[in-house]
Design goal:
497 residues; Rossmann fold; alpha/beta; 22 helices; 6-stranded mixed sheet
Amino acid sequence: MEKILYRSTRDNQTKVTASQAILKGLAPDGGLYVPERIPQLDVPVERLAGMTYPEVAYEVMKLYLTDYTEEELKEIISKAYTGKFDHADMVHLHKGYHAFYLELYHGPTIAFKDMALQILPHLMTAAAKKNGVTKEIVILTATSGDTGKAALAGFADVPGTKIIVFYPKYGVSAVQEMQMVTQRGANTFIAGITGNFDDAQSGVKAMFNNKELAERMAREGYQFSSANSINVGRLVPQIVYYVYAYAQMVAGGHIANGDPINIAVPTGNFGNILAACYAKKMGLPIAKLFCASNENKVLYDFFQTGIYDKNRPFVVTSSPSMDILISSNLERLIYEIAGEDDAKCKALMQQLSETGRYEITEEMHEKLSDFVSGYADQAETIKAIKGTYENSHYIIDTHTAVAGSVYHRYRKETEDKTKTVIACTASPFKFPRSVILAISSDYGYQSDMEMVYTLSDNMRIPVPRAVEELRNAEIVHRTVCETQEMQKVVEEYLGLA
């Protein structure tokens, strides 16, 4: 198999292997690593349709992670996925009202990020061994709610690693926060910040780019890496479930092999929909990619106008994992539509850093025709949850509802009957208050944890193990800091202060 190397979106002359890109997370110049070419699927869909999820994962990941051996990859996949998921298939495709729902939330933290973050620690420790790394790897991550817990659960007590997570103290659901602050593991550290997710993400990026901090860490035997979706070790495993979804559509007789499908994704940091874009480029017959935003509609405006502008009010919504104004993974798409012109991509990212906005050329804008952008406000999100329940007695979370709202509006306006898969990115139990109150206003007096059991009892669905365990969990992380104190917090935790 031909080797694939990775290069930075801001300097495509420097190339690294997949394992090196996973270890580094972010390129030294601040860019994101992208594969020098997108490989083509080399297994017929008819064969994929008969495979288990781990088997499909190997067939996809082997094409991107070409410096891992077959034995290494299969062992990594087995360690990551065996016994970790509540559903026998790991990923379940549910036939709903005018759409198919791809349930990506059956993992240990009931969010789609488990699909990649259960596997990333194993990819990373194998990469460290492969590249002779002796320093302890410090995973430094900002989260808007789900990445944090999924990363903590994946890296907890993994030898040779520490993990530090920052989250917006007042910008996540009660269940999301409880999942993080009750996380055990001698190598785990969590801190809330008084700002929003973009503040947390900017603080993390500043530490990654701080050469003086990196030198001090190196002297103490540490090096940073990332578990955010900027890491290709996150991005590649996400491609898998879109390939699996298409194969399952064929296996279930919903489409014939070769028939196109649409994919709708609730989108914040752009990594999840970018993975679907990569799946399309690998040869999967995907017609349209629905980029669904909530009221923080910076991506919707970008696709409509070609102008990315984060200079706007930050809106706290019921879909907090999408409350983002700086969509980091969009840089990978910008690099592509710029004709892989690293200088042009770097200049645009510099403009974003300095002014908070940039504008792409008309030629670049024309290359975005695969995408359909839309957004749903709070009222539309609530309506989508209630409507989905009433039409098919199926319950979706707030993020999935945003994607559902955008898709169903498009379908009504265009009468496009192409079979569509909606990515279900979180369990409704992660946002019980928003989900319950969308369906019925009778339970507003209850606490969030009480609503978990109301949701279970009234809707006749079991409480996921991940939530049940929170009932008597002890809070072990209580640190809260200002945004400007983030580096100081990290230095104190690592003993550098």
